[in-house]
């Protein structure tokens, strides 16, 4: 501050008619002392008995114009970052060159989110600074899906009990990433206790108050390796400052106890007539050797003369220039064009505090090439360097800039260069999450009563997928697709139908072809032996018709195999229903003719006139016509069962389908009745036992069909259909025609009129 005031006073282009002076009071890192010093300055009563000392954190900088009391300037702060101070209703005259913690908190929330640290510990010293900062962080972190594993405050003077409480919280938490809002003195106490407990593997995130505190590295470098944190803007250099600091000599130290103490501690000697009364070392202060007067600050390293991290110093530099430029603007005011009532101006040598504040709030100047201006709350535009604590080859601390946060940049305020970051453990950032990320194929399910970062990963159900990490919901697959095993991709469903190429399809196909060929073969036999007594004794027309439709019934089975199509579905059930109705109608008519033929031999019986060829054809057509009336079309549908699309034909009407089966059952009952009535006919004409046996098989097949049909699905339903059709057709074929073929082909001696006519 004194350097900057000296620099301004030496300029001819800035405040040429005014000289700046100053009073410095030490806060002593103690709140009562700090309040006393602040009140003395604000009230314009510099305490002559109060030592002119150093300035420390949250020090209030004061300047005044020539012959103007200190009460003329209210508050230009260079290191107070508490967001509470942005409240202009409570602090209307407050300004600062330090960014508000509001911006630092946004940067910290983005930082932890960037590295995937969604489960962090947050600690801070008992102060408005930490309380407001942590409150803001808890609010801001929600927007980035970040949760606090714990929040803990510890006193400014950290007792052993307070350290134990704090370290127990840290040690037993699952979070290994810790944000600490404190100064370096509190951090030193915490690090000592961590070393004593041999705790390792912690990732520290420093607030701007200790992000560049090199003094912490000397004893705790191993613990702080990989620390990241935001530091306020750094000035590359302040021309002349290094020379100003190192120009201090022993002869100029007697005016300040602070400077005397600094000199004696640095060179381990005692000044003659020193105002200093205590020592920071363990040795006896009064046993030190007298200073020689030849000591030179250029010969030793000291934080005092270290100008590599000009951050707080740069804030002070800008704060002094802010007052200077405000005074310049106030002095340059033209009467009649001033900012106050009726265009008036302030008197540069007798102005009111609120008049200077007006110019300070509207200040817009450059300092070392940086544009300096303020928002409506008196806060500067925030800019932070992201610093990484790295170990240099010689073991010393190397503060490396690995990114920055610039609030003036729209959208992407935080920029990070990951490749240059060194981490506490290995080459990658440690993981700190309450729950691991849910991989694709699962969804997030929040745990009741716990923070949003704590959740379980539940696999998507069948037919649903998630293809992103941490999906909140699983999405349904389309109708023609289904979820894969990993539940992260919808894949085409497998089409299922009874194929010609699978064993069941081949077997049923062979059986259908065999049945049809056998029917045609029997027709051929009957045609070849049409003049034999056995063939002539049967109703040839009805027999041929029955055999023809049995062949069709066998071929109907083929329609149920293979990929179903709309036109196949439209004819499957009507072919099936009509064919069986014709077969059983023929059998019924044939049995009735034989039965009536023997009954007509009774005297005065004219029954046979109703059972001629025309009447037989009519009865067959009538029996089939009834079936045609109740037939229902079948339709092609796609049933979705898991990862399979089942293509199948189903009846257009369930009532119609069961009516078809019911009518066939009625015809079969009629055949069974006719067979029962014909049981006493001569054996050679009596087919009753064969018809009865075939009908019993027919009933057994279709009664069994009903529960099996209802309980099966997909291609197995089709197989049941085909089996029922083939079994019924084979029953009729084998029971009625095979015995006749046996006699015709193997026992020709029985195929004569004499054998047929005898009982």
Describe this structure in words.
With 759 residues, the chain is α/β, with parallel strands linked by helices. Among the domains are: 95-234 and 382-420, 3-Layer(aba) Sandwich (Rossmann fold); 249-296, no CATH class; 442-492, no CATH class; 503-639 and 648-757, Rhodopsin 7-helix transmembrane proteins (Rhopdopsin 7-helix transmembrane proteins, Up-down Bundle). The protein is built from 20 helices and 24 strands. It has an 8-stranded mixed beta sheet with strand order 7-6-8-9-10-13-14-15, with helices on both faces. A 3-stranded mixed beta sheet has the order 2-4-5, covered by helices on one side. The protein is rod-shaped. One of its GO terms (molecular function) is G protein-coupled receptor activity. Residues 504-759 form the G-protein coupled receptors family 3 profile domain. It is found in: Cell membrane. It is a multi-pass membrane protein.
Q: Which secondary structure elements does this structure contain, and how are they paired or packed?
A:
Layout: H1 2-9, E1 21-22, H2 31-42, E2 60-61, E3 63-64, E4 76-77, E5 95-96, H3 101-114, E6 119-125, H4 128-141, E7 147-154, H5 160-171, E8 177-181, H6 184-197, E9 203-206, H7 217-224, E10 228-232, H8 241-246, H9 257-267, H10 312-331, H11 353-361, E11 365-367, E12 370-372, E13 383-391, E14 397-406, E15 414-416, E16 442-446, E17 455-459, E18 464-465, E19 475-476, E20 481-483, E21 490-492, E22 494-496, H12 503-528, H13 533-537, H14 540-559, H15 566-599, H16 613-630, E23 634-641, E24 644-651, H17 654-677, H18 688-711, H19 715-746, H20 753-757
Parallel strand pairs: 4-5, 6-7, 6-8, 8-9, 9-10, 22-24
Antiparallel strand pairs: 1-3, 2-4, 10-13, 11-12, 13-14, 14-15, 16-17, 18-19, 20-21, 23-24
């Amino acid at each position: 501050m004194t350097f900057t005031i000296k620099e301004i006073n030496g300029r001819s282009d800035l405040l040429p008619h005014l000289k700046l002076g100053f009073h410095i009071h030490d806060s002593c890192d103690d709140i009562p002392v700090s309040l006393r010093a602040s009140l003395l300055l604000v009230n314009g009563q510099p305490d002559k008995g109060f030592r002119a000392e150093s300035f420390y954190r949250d020090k209030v900088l004061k300047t005044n114009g020539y012959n103007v009391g200190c009460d003329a300037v209210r508050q230009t702060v260079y290191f107070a970052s508490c967001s509470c101070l942005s409240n202009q209703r409570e602090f209307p005259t407050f300004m600062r060159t330090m960014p508000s913690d509001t911006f630092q908190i946004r940067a910290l929330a983005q930082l932890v989110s960037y590295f995937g640290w969604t489960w962090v510990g947050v600690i801070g010293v008992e102060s408005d600074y930490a309380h407001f900062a942590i409150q803001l962080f808890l609010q801001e972190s929600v927007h980035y899906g970040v949760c606090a594993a714990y929040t803990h405050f510890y006193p400014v003077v950290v007792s052993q009990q307070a350290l134990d409480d704090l370290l127990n919280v840290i040690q037993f938490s699952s979070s290994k990433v810790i944000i600490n809002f404190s100064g370096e003195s509190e951090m030193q106490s915490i690090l000592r206790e961590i070393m004593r407990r041999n705790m390792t593997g912690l990732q520290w995130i420093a607030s701007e108050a200790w992000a560049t505190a090199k003094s912490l590295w000397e004893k705790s470098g191993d613990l702080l390796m990989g620390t990241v944190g935001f530091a306020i803007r750094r000035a590359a250099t302040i021309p002349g400052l290094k020379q100003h600091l190192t120009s201090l000599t022993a002869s100029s130290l007697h005016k300040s106890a602070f400077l005397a103490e600094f000199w004696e501690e640095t060179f381990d000697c005692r000044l003659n007539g020193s105002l200093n009364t205590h020592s920071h070392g363990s040795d006896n202060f009064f046993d030190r050797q007298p200073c020689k007067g030849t000591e030179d600050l250029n010969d030793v390293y000291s934080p005092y003369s270290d100008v590599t991290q000009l951050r707080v110093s740069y804030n002070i530099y800008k704060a002094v220039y802010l007052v200077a430029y405000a005074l310049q603007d106030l002095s340059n005011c033209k009467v009649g064009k001033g900012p106050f009532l009726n265009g008036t101006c302030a008197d540069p040598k007798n102005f009111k505090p609120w008049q200077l504040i007006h110019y300070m709030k509207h200040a817009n100047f450059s300092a070392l090439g940086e544009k300096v201006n303020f928002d409506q709350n008196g806060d500067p535009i925030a800019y932070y360097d992201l610093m990484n604590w790295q170990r240099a080859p010689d073991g010393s601390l190397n503060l490396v800039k690995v990114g920055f946060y610039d609030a003036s940049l729209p959208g992407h305020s935080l920029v990070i260069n990951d490749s240059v970051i060194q981490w506490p453990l290995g080459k990658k950032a440690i993981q700190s999450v309450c729950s691991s990320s849910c991989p694709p194929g699962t969804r997030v399910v929040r745990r009741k009563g716990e923070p949003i970062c704590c959740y379980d990963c539940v696999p998507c159900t069948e037919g649903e997928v998630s293809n992103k990490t941490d999906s909140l919901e699983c999405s349904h697959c389309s109708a023609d697709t289904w979820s894969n095993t990993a539940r992260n991709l919808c894949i085409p469903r497998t089409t299922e139908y009874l194929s010609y190429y699978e064993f069941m399809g081949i077997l049923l196909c062979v059986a259908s072809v065999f049945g049809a060929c056998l029917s045609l073969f029997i027709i051929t036999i009957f045609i070849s032996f049409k003049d034999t007594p056995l063939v002539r004794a049967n109703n040839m027309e009805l027999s041929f018709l029955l055999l023809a439709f049995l062949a069709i019934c066998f071929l109907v089975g083929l329609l149920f195999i293979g990929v179903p199509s709309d036109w196949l579905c439209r004819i499957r059930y009507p072919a099936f229903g009509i064919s069986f109705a014709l077969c059983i109608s023929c059998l019924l008519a044939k049995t009735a003719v034989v039965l009536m033929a023997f009954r007509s031999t009774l005297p005065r019986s004219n029954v046979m006139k109703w059972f001629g060829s025309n009447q037989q054809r009519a009865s067959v057509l009538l029996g089939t016509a009834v079936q045609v009336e109740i037939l229902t079309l079948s339709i092609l549908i796609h049933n979705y069962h898991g990862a399979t699309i089942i293509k199948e034909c189903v009846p257009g009407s369930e009532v119609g389908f069961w009516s078809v089966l019911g009518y066939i059952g009625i015809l079969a009952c009629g055949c069974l009745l006719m067979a029962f009535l014909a049981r006493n006919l001569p054996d050679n004409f009596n087919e009753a036992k064969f018809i009865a046996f075939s009908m019993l098989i027919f009933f057994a097949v279709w009664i069994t069909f009903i529960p099996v049909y209802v309980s099966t699905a997909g291609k197995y339903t089709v197989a049941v259909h085909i089996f029922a059709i083939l079994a019924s057709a084979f029953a009729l074929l084998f029971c009625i025609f095979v015995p006749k073929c046996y006699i015709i082909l193997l026992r020709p001696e029985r195929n004569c009129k004499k054998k047929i006519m005898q009982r």
